[in-house]
Write a structure and sequence with these properties.
Layout: H1 3-19, H2 26-39, E1 63-71, H3 75-81, E2 96-98, E3 100-103, H4 119-124, E4 133-137, H5 138-147, E5 166-169, E6 181-184, E7 190-196, H6 202-207, H7 227-233, E8 239-245, E9 247-250, E10 254-259, H8 267-275, H9 295-302, H10 309-323
Parallel strand pairs: 4-5
Antiparallel strand pairs: 1-2, 1-5, 1-10, 3-9, 4-8, 6-7, 6-10, 7-8
Helix pairs in contact: 1-2, 9-10
Amino acid sequence: MDRSREVGSRRLGAVAGHVTGPGVEAEPVAGLVGWLSSLFGGGGSAQSSSTKDAGSGGAPAVCGTVLQCYIAPDAEELAALYADGILPDGEHFRRHPAPSISVDATDIGPSSNYPPSHQGFAATLAEPNERALLCTTVEGYQKLADGLPDYAEHFGASRPGSGEQLHVDGLEQWECCIGDVFAVAGKTTRLQVSSPRRPCDKWNMTHNPGDPTHRLGHEADVPDGNVRHWCLTHTLGGIFFRVLDAGDIAVGDTLELVERPYPQWPLKRVGDLLYGQAGVHPDTFMKGEAWSGSTEELDELLAMKELATAEWKEVLQMAQTGRTGGAK
């Protein structure tokens, strides 16, 4: 199968997953997609986005299909939600589905990359672009649903449960690595993995607003019922991308891995070492006190220019200071 037919076949497979649903018979849809797929040389069935032949020793390529794109509310909509300067619980990750989003490495302000409510925070970042785009994955949400069954309905393509801009099928979140470069097939857009996403207190405000003790993760919280803590210690908050080459990303697009400079540093390993042993209260992990790796691993991560500073290198630096006996 040539490249254009292969990409077309994968996109049809993704579309099939959204066409089927309540009140829609799966068999007619599958037949339609199979017939359309045959036009692309797919032999009547869409090829899995996670098992595409890379053409190098028969090893599968790393790629995923965009199932959902989301944009943030505009300033007027957010203003209508605020009460006494505070967003009500459950509204912190509000997003709206869109057929496509634009991504820009230099202007994350009013664009779809970054919510207007976070502009003040963005201005304080040394490199705002390192958090320009948040992506969640189907398998990542499935792990959250399995680990937090009381909140299972919160995680899926039907709602942006993390405030993400992209929801992707076919990528294994834990297996993506720091510095991975993904190209959008057929477009100039290129993204680079900068870090896992460290969940903030808004996870508890959004997913468990009925329990006020979960708002900031107090010591009295039960860890198994604290969405933020479980997500943090399992590295399941999503993937932050920086934008290398601006462009657009649309539903049905394919993200293809084109560079992997640090195969030894998958996101799960980074998250486990820095936050895997974190306690429930933020004071137990925001100063690097939960670091569980070696000095050599710490130094290697700090020397990695692709790793995000916010919430990662800055915390690693505090862990390093603590290990050398400096002030914390």
